[in-house]
Design brief:
- 71% of the residues lie in helices and 0% in strands.
- The chain starts with 9 loop residues before the first helix and ends with a helix.
- Helix 4 packs across helix 6 and helix 5 packs antiparallel against helix 7.
- The chain contains nine helices and no strands.
- It is mainly α.
Length: 197
């Protein structure tokens, strides 16, 4: 189906959808996908169950949209990070920074994505896993360029890449909005930890 032309009120529609997805992520994060219900999500958001179905769909649709949102966040972080500079060190720093912002801003959706993937429809799981593999491969290529300059440890590039990405993606477990660190400070700490200037 062709994309529709943006119309007045579309932003309000998307805001409502995002609010519902955030509510679903909160329920699935605390109760698990298998135990969480659309009734709980509706109650948490002070909406009717039919509203959930109207704006997003079934429980399976909610999980699918959460996974696709994380997929878009990761793709955007990679694209924008690589476009920030031609220098691989600057690229890696930019990817880490943008990815950290995405994980922290949408910590519940990332938590659900990480813990509930087994419940995704196979076609959706295959799509997001393919994009995640492409994300890892692109970051690994940047890591290898930096290693060739002697600016990262002489270790398997796959190990360094997974260490960097897991460090960032696990931010959702401990970061608190009311804490003293903002996402930029967290990203900077990650970059310093691996020796990026």
């Amino acid at each position: 189906m062709a994309a529709s032309t943006p119309v007045e009120g579309e932003s309000a529609w998307e805001d409502k959808r995002r609010r519902i997805l955030d509510g679903a992520a909160a329920v699935f994060s605390s109760r698990g996908y298998s135990k969480g219900t659309t009734r709980e999500i509706a109650a948490q958001l002070d909406l009717s169950q039919p509203s959930i179905y109207h704006y997003v769909g079934s429980k399976a649709d909610l999980l699918r949209e959460i996974a696709l949102q994380v997929d878009r966040d990761m793709t955007t972080a990679l694209r924008d990070g690589l476009a920030a500079s031609a220098d691989p060190v600057a690229q890696l720093r930019a990817v880490i920074t943008r990815f950290t912002y995405a994980v922290i801003a949408n910590n519940l959706t990332f938590a659900v994505y990480r813990s509930e993937q087994r419940w995704l429809e196979p076609v959706v799981a295959e799509e997001v896993q393919r994009h995640e593999s492409e994300f890892v491969a692109a970051v690994r290529a940047v890591v290898e360029r930096i290693q060739a300059r002697g600016q990262l440890p002489d270790a398997p590039s796959s190990v360094l890449t997974f260490a960097i990405l897991n460090m960032v993606s696990e931010s959702h477990r401990w970061y608190h909005q009311e804490g003293s660190l903002d996402p930029a400070a967290v990203a900077d700490a990650y970059c310093k930890l691996i020796g990026l200037p």
